[in-house]
Write a structure and sequence with these properties.
This protein has 3 domains: 3-137 and 220-295, no CATH class; 148-206; 349-505, no CATH class. 43% of the residues lie in helices and 8% in strands. The protein has helices spanning 3-30, 50-59, 70-79, 82-86, 89-100, 118-131, 137-140, 142-171, 177-190, 202-214, 222-226, 229-238, 272-275, 281-285, 310-328, 349-355, 361-365, 401-405, 416-421, 435-439, 445-449, 489-493; strands spanning 243-247, 291-295, 371-373, 386-388, 426-429, 457-465, 471-479, 502-505. α6 (118-131) packs across α15 and α8 runs antiparallel to α9.
Amino acid sequence: MNAKKGKQWQRLRAASQVLFSILFFFLLLISGRIAVESLPHTGAFFYIDPLNLWVNALAGPFLRPFLLALVPLVLTLVLGRFFCGWICPFGALQQFFTWLGSRRVKKKIASHHGALRWKYILLIVLLVASLFATQWLGWLDPFSLLTRSSSVTLFPGLNFLLQHALESGANSQSLGSRIIKPLYDFSRAWLLSGTQRTFLLSFVIGAIFFGLLLLNLYRRRFFCNYLCPLGALYGWLAKYSLFRLHVNPNCTQCNACAGHCTYYGGPFTDYQKSECLVCMNCVKDCPVAAIDVRWQLPKAGQVPALAPRRRQILSAVGCGLVAAALPQIAAGKKTKGHPFIRPPGAAAEKDFLKKCIRCGACMQACPTNAIQPALLQAGLDGLWTPLLAPSCGYCEYECVRCTRVCPTHALASLALEEKKQFKIGTAVINRSTCYTYADGHNCGVCEEHCPVPEKAIRLREVELYNFRGKLKKVKQVYVVPDLCIGCGICENVCPRTDAPAIVVGAEEEQREAFY
């Protein structure tokens, strides 16, 4: 195959990466801007992820859309590891940052090829842990990682920068403001958040995300080559594929093909089938058209050099068992109470942790910024799972977005009327700080904002001594627990500036049953 054809394939690959990346970010962005009932499901990319198929099959009940993940698996047996190089949006970002830091390598670098095994070992660890109901795959799955990072860090950061840049330009008296003003109005309507979104772990999640991108300046497609569990799965399957790059007799051993190879190997290596991303860089770079594409059945008994050795597999299985057991024997697993609130539709905690892939799609969809990533509130295995934090926002009474975008139904899809009756917690008044109890002042902010038609927060007139020691009639607030659904708006709007005088806990929370 000559360089001209290689360049055509290269351009086609770049176009495919851009197209799928735009589609991915578009579906994610609109889930936080408009209602999602009439739109394509924002979890569409998760349904073509075989790792999520594995998670769903273990957690149950099985969701049919995940059968779509069989399509790229079958295509991998034909085309090789094309998914990573042509479709994966996170792979496209890796490729872009690799291009930013690319340097032409004149000699083939094979000294680090053993590090390419890391992702296979990591995949074994994560799969073994998930067999024992400890779900870690969402930490490193590229779709979950990209969705979580975009929702918590990338989109809020870009929103802040664009908001200030466009607002300053639109309000200026310069000639350019006439151009910027329509752009600003359009962005406010369709792209920018009305209020700046903030997240509790944005710095940590952002540091991991941008750190993985910057590592591409050190090694090409660092995450794809060394860490990605999905890439490891496709790489293992690709060694049985029909696709193969073949070096013909025209080869002059110039190593030009290794110059831009994504795994520093080229078509010479015996592990080419499992690591090649079908990028066609080598075909374009070859000056003598010495690289051909062949379609042939794999030879019986042929094992790529990068296959984990027996001891490495046993060690990975052992690490997977340890990773599965340690979070489950923590003292918090026996504690009856817990200090966090899950979003509406959440499954029972044990089932929720098995089904949730930590993608953060619900955080992006929440219009009030109430859903936040967990740190250790739910244990180590609950890291980055969604919690409802009334200090940041509240659960909008007329909204069901988070339940509609959850790809694994860790948050069950609820009709609006079902959601309005779904009890995620109960409000409790702190009588030592509430103005109507401690100070003898009239205050009904929480009662005014309570969205429940029957009013779960009410007022009653009592006589008490105020903070000056005078007997006074005051309308005290009180909670009707049977009516409270735990939306958190009362805690969010409480006028006390030191700490809310009414807080929502998980008392009497309702969890969705799957069985």
